[in-house]
Write a structure and sequence with these properties.
heterodimer, A: about 120 residues, mainly beta, 7-stranded mixed sheet, about 50% strand, globular, B: about 110 residues, 5-stranded antiparallel sheet
Chain lengths: ~120, ~110
């Protein structure tokens, strides 16, 4: 049971480079989320997809874009990486479409450093 | 916007001692969830509380949701080294526009000394 799979696990970029973080879940979940985790700040929502075909901004969307490619996959793109985007990125999924009261299942994270 | 504050930020205990972390929201919550993240790992869902004044137990862990649904606590009795990690609360607004979104507290990092 893979659950939520994120690739890559680690990445180092130079300022201005672009990259896409991949996330896939095999639990037939409807909702998917991207968070970033910084020391002392908990997890902050970047973007979410309440169901296949929809995406919406979270708390800290600036500098990011997302694509809900299909029900399984939800990617996060950094168009022009900045040092402030150095963080650990977590993808999560939830079984229900657009429902607040549901547990979220997290991937192992991508540790991203921007030099 | 909604804010969820969690205290303390750090807690060091001797194995066998009790531990409590508190979570306070600036707004009334529809529910609160608790997650545990082991060092180097990812958050793992522990429990969800929905009802005012609700208390739930999982072995040595006791979770409470305040009567006003604006605060919550997690209490661990007789800590073990396996309890090490960061404990997060996460809340959703009651009837607001937080469609599918959780606001996480900053987390409490628990260290257990054997």
């Amino acid at each position: 049971n893979a659950g939520v799979t994120q690739t890559p696990k680690f990445q180092v970029l130079k300022t201005g480079q672009s990259m896409t973080l991949q996330c896939a879940q095999d639990m037939n979940h409807n909702s998917m989320y991207w968070y970033r985790q910084d020391p002392g700040m908990g997890l902050r929502l970047i973007y979410y997809s309440a169901s296949e075909g929809t995406t919406d901004k979270g708390e800290v969307p600036n500098g990011y874009n997302v694509s809900r490619l299909n029900k399984r996959e939800f990617s996060l793109r950094l168009e022009s990486a900045a040092p402030s985007q150095t963080s650990v990125y977590f993808c999560a999924s939830g079984p229900l479409a657009g429902v607040i009261n549901q547990p979220q299942h997290f991937g192992d994270g991508t540790r991203l450093s921007i030099l | 916007g909604q804010q969820v504050m969690q205290i303390p930020q750090y807690q060091h205990v001797q194995e066998g001692e009790d531990f409590t972390t508190y979570c306070n929201s600036s707004t009334t919550l529809s529910n609160i969830q608790w997650y545990k993240q082991r060092p180097g790992g990812h958050p793992v869902f522990l429990i969800q509380l929905v009802k005012s004044g609700e208390v739930k137990k999982q072995k040595r862990l006791t979770f409470q949701f305040g009567e006003a649904k604006k605060n919550s606590s997690l209490h661990i009795t007789a800590t073990q080294t396996t309890d090490v990690g960061t404990y997060f609360c996460a809340g959703s607004n009651a009837g607001g526009t937080s469609y599918g979104k959780l606001t996480f507290g900053q987390g409490t990092i628990l260290t257990v000394h054997p």
